[in-house]
């Protein structure tokens, strides 16, 4: 049996009962090392296997191997396992007939949204700005189309040391369709002890403060900030 | 204090510890009646206030009134409270200085995705087909732009008794951009005891089976079905 678990954004309070039960039922926990520490209280007596950040495929193969050898294995992702997480690679590599269960979690975008107020109340386009596995032009085309459609835009992996200009490029595209005072919510380390929340507007983003642990949520044309809360109205026009 | 809680898709197993703690700490629980039953084990001795499905604004006002009177109030939504849930209306109506906390939950789309495999592994456009609060043309324009951008498309509120043709119209737009064999995952009552999962292709959808309790996930051009599992690859091109 292999459990593919979304543990939520990091703090154990945002884990589900189902995730905790699966961890407790497992023989071996596989995950990126810092993520194992987030669930440490539930896996004290368990064997673990971890690799570095880019070792996803190695972790998947090891997890499937351990399962084949008769172990109950949990593979953990932060946020939801099915959005940019481990569910895809595991299921892609898995042999027919392997017993598995994907256990959904609170995704980084909804966790970040809850800390900003209610910025994702309406239709949203969720886009990763990492071009490690996606052509750059496709990413920017999606940003353009999402802007044209007045979607709330939720950006994952907005900025890394080797990818400093993607976010600025994406924002410059969005600005062709949105006012300068469009609200932008920036949340670093959502759901953790050191969460950092910034509310700003699309013309005033401090790019230097944004990294891979940050979610950037750009409002739609109706979004506004009131009393330091970012809100996208549920109703698009007044009834 | 007012807690605005996403209780997850319905089964208590997909609730977070944070949501359970907030319910336990509350004096009064406000929610749509069937949703109160999902959390009944945590609110046995609590006062409750409920209205019918379309009584959201009445519930919001009542919750804020109860909070002003000195109660700790929890307002519950299924899925995540911040996506088409109660977080928006509450925060829109709330007076400055009211103590509040939005508690994120496992959203319906990620719960449904977990039951299908890993259909939302890549960029996704999340769109509600209800035109109760959104102009019909804007909804269909978003469907068109999401199709053009090769987003995975996750459809909420796909079909109701008074809205039987929206989904067919949306699918006919998507089909202009995607192959006939594009995978479509349909999940009714995700996360509950009576979950019903259908895997099909975009040219073979049985519309009669789809209702308001259903999430429809249309794959992107790379999505596929393998051993009854719907997968959208994480990598867009082979590295």
Computed over alpha carbons, the radius of gyration of chain A is 19 Å
Helix count, DSSP H or I runs of 4 or more residues of chain A? 7
Count of distinct strands of chain A: 13
User: Strand-residue fraction of chain A?
Assistant: 15-25%
Low-confidence stretches of chain A: none
* Quaternary form: homodimer
Task: Give the H and E element order of chain A.
Answer: EHEHEHEHEHEEHEHEEEEE
- Indicate the mean pLDDT of chain A: 95
Share of helix among residues of chain A? 25-40%
Task: Return the structural class of chain A.
Answer: alpha/beta
| Major β-sheet annotation of chain A | 5 strands, parallel
Largest interface: A-B, 72 and 72 residues
User: What shape does the CA trace of chain A take?
Assistant: elongated
**Terminal-residue CA separation of chain A:** 51 Å
Widest β-sheet, arrangement of strands of chain A: 3-2-4-1-5
Any overview of this molecule?
The structure is a homodimer of 239-residue chains. Helices cover 28% and strands 23% of the residues of chain A. Chain A is of the alpha/beta class and 239 residues long. In chain A, the strands form three sheets. Chain A has a five-stranded parallel β-sheet with strand order 3-2-4-1-5, sandwiched between helices. A five-stranded mixed β-sheet of chain A has the order 7-8-11-9-10, sandwiched between helices. Chain A has a three-stranded mixed β-sheet with strand order 6-13-12. In chain A, a hairpin with a 7-residue loop joins strand 9 (183-188) and strand 10. In chain A, helix 6 (136-148) runs parallel beside helix 7. Chain A is elongated and about 55 Å long. Chain A starts with a strand and ends in an 8-residue tail after the last strand. The mean pLDDT of chain A is 95. At the A-B interface, helix 1, helix 4, helix 5, strand 6 and strand 7 of A face helix 1, helix 4, helix 5, strand 6 and strand 7 of B.
